[in-house]
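Budget justification note: compute hours in this period were largely spent on complex prediction jobs such as the one shown. Inputs:
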Amino acid sequence: MKAQAVLGIVVLAVIPLAAACAAKRPAEVTYHDPNMDFSLVQKVAVLPFENLTTMTTAAERVRDVFTTMMQATGTSYVMPPGEVARGVDRASVANPTAPTTEEVVNLGKVVGVDAVITGVVREYGEVRSGSTSAGVVSVSLQMMETQTGKVVWSASSTRGGVDAGDRLFGGGGQPMDQVTADAVRDLLDKLFR
Amino acid sequence: MRFAICSTNCSADRALLAAAAVVAWLWAAPLAALAADGSRVAVFPPVNRSGRTVPAEQVQAALESSLSARGFSPLPRAELDEFFQRHRLRHMGGISAEMAQAIGVETGVDGVLLTSVDDWEEVDPPRLALTSRWVAALPDAPLRWMGSSSHHGHEHPGAFGLGLVTSPDILLARASAEIARALSGSVAAGDVEQRSGVPRPFRPGSFSVDPDWAAAATSGRPLRVAVLPFIAEPPRREVGEVIASQLARWLLDSGLVEVLEPGVIREALLEARVIQEDGPSLPQVDALHALLDVDLVVSGRVTDFEATGSSPGSPFVGFSTRGIDVRSRQAVWSSFSFGRGDDCGGPFGVGRIRSSITLTSELARGVVAALDDELRTRRPQAAGEKEDTR
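Corresponding output:
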């Protein structure tokens, strides 16, 4: 009877801890337009990402990795960034990081793409927990098709950070380039799922 | 002593004399072969891409001296300055087709040696990196050779730190001698090592090539490639040129393509008024095609470049590369590379790369090796397809 009581107390103590561990990374919701046939998206323009971090070049870095890795999947052709910049200029997009519906449609005509991808880099850099530090990246992306300017896909990904293993055994997490590549890979998996 | 030996007639003495003659011939043969070349060369003052104050005069003198020792005949400084004044030549980072022809005709040089100081640090540990290229003094300014030498004071510490170098002058002498040796055609041991396989960490993390373009690229004449300066964020914009020159170097070394002299490209960029903000746009690519008859325009962006790194002696470098085919007007090749100096380090730091330029060179070599592999795998397929159609 006494042993059962002790076991019960231990279980009750562990449940909140387990819940805390599970809640460490919040569920990242992905939206896919059910009426959209993504196989029709053959040409894509990746617009400059919004940067909400303190590192000035974070958005450019993430955009660069995303563009290259998306091209490497071979599923769709990604417009060269120089051509995208020219298109943004010609279509008179006021804020390339957050274009309006009309601007997306207009840009699609000017550059000749089926979809436009915008993004926000929410976190990029090193996080510290006690004596341990690790790289962390948090990115959210949106895809808008250029016929109507409607959002057809949206997803976010957070990778890196200090985990329990790093805290227990010391040492840092993965370097920034790998964390960025992981986050981008995760986003591409969500896009082509 | 030698006369004494000659004066004797004993067979042992004659054998000793013959052996000495053979040893002397073996020692002198390579030097004689190089000295026989006697190419006349204009050594241009080096361009500073290190972001620090560089003793350009000293670097130029060291190169001239090393080249002279290898049998080249550098153009006298006064004659070179006179040429610069006559043509109002101030940009030393490249040479246009017109200037290459003019210097050949007016001064009688066979080629021009253009050098950039990519890294320079006088404070202990010293660092130095030189990248040189040989442009023939002919109408099209053909780029014939590119080489690089980078050193770090702590690269070979040795037992009890006996191999540590504290003076940049020693590194300068070493680097200029290596450049001259590589240019003269004698392959150094280091170069042989460099031509071996690229370590996995220095291969691009992400790489894609359009298979149709790759198949077409392997047939017909070698592709003419213009490597544009990579886009780099301030305060070190010159890093973009460092990475572009390393990529051009390995593309040239691969023999896959014909790489255009950066001075010729610069002239065309100025003529077409191309200002890259995010890389070349398609009309800009068209303009380069019209002016230079290029097949592929290569550009990229530098995402990371840290000469010293987070821990001392561990540089890190990251960049993306993109190739635009001028005929299809599409990006046909893209890659992303990132590396750290300690990616290939063994125990006690053995094998660790301490120079950011060496690391950049390895990453650029990785990109070219990946491209080379892709083109080579497409080559038999292309041949096979042709056979099938026959």
